[in-house]
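User
New here, help please:
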Amino acid sequence: MTDLAYEQIKADLAAQPLFENKTWQLSPEAWRLTEEQAAELVEIGATCLEFHQALETLYLRAAAGKNLLRNKPLRAPWVLDYLDRGKPADLVAHARDPRNRGMFPSVLRPDLLLTDDGFVMTELDSVPGGIGLTAFLNRLYSVQGSIIGGEDAMIELFYQSIATRRPRVQNPLIALVVSDEAATYRPEMQWLAEQLQRQGRRVFCMRPEDLFPLEDSLFFDAEGNPEKIDVIYRFFELFDLPNIATKEFIMSAWNVGEVEIVPPMRPFQEEKLTLALFHHHLLQDFWVETLSKRSLKLLRRLIPATWVMDPAPLPPGAVLDAPSAAGRPLNSWADLIGATQKERDLIIKISGYHETAWGARSVVLGSDSSKQEWQAGVERAVAMAESSLHVLQTYRKPRRVRHRVFDREQQVREVDGRLRLCPYYFVIGGETKLGGALATFCPPDKKIIHGMQDAALLPTRVFSLNEVRA
């Protein structure tokens, strides 16, 4: 295996900054996965799509007031309350529009933590950042061989996952629309567009205000000439939609079939509380009936125990389906404030449709918080529940692993850390294709793993036992 030199990595990244004002630790080698881990990643991708398909069935049948099971009564109108809470009526209607049936995110990215028991999936993102960065790193480290997905798979699969949404248009014009809220990621989207343009693909990165209507269609100004847009890849969260000045033009063009929107604007697909629904005791028969046995088994292993922090009052003798506090079951979520430090091995985070729902901005890790911070986190979740629900999730601690990184003197050192792995699955023709996986390697004292300055961001490669012996 060929190590990458510090000067080479630094120069290549400096020539093409992929995140606005962001830096991270560098490493001479890609993250190494075993052949078994790589095979499991492929299986996880297919399972994530199957979960989304089952989730759509759950949501739409609940919306229609239909029974959820074939041979047994089960209705769950409360699922709609959870998934639609706080969303505007027009967006909810759009999500349920029959033309959106069977429309799933084009890119799925679970957040996987490597624990002593294997991978744990803490979230499933459908508008993920890091696509361009992972594609760039795959190219940069491809000299080491066996890169997950291959040297250019991220770029090609990203394109196919969007272009196939407009199958009757040859070489469709694709607009990668990045909002100001998501501006940090604009450089990597611009880079992706440039790579595809070099292949003769009509892909352009732009701001929402660059769009304008002509008759029923959407256009943008391409060097003084109006060009008709066939597909919008929206790189903005749905909570940001009110800030998109051209949203009415976008919706109007979609309504008459002149443009496709990828991923679809269906907020129920972007809620973290869907992981809590998977564990909800009232829905177990639905998941058993709807999911394959293989996917059901895998999801039960992957998804840690998760609960919706719904503060609806209970009768005096009733208790919540939730962890205990001070050794006693909870009658209300406020009781969670009294949990001991040991009992607070839990994470609170907002479910979605809110500006703090991405980038770990709403996350409170109980075991790493003071009593006051924990109380504030619980009280905030209860106070916001009328418009934005939070989830509570069991914290599964990532295990310590080792990897080589460059220190401040640009010398290679093998250090301890913890790992988050983000595989990118591209949905094409009803199947998932693994394009690459971004490894975030953090210092061991960091409890919440995300892209921080003292973390290393790396592509992944497969290594064999023979390579280890060599």
In short: The chain is about 30% helix and 25% strand. The longest helix spans residues 35-63. The chain has a mean pLDDT of 94.
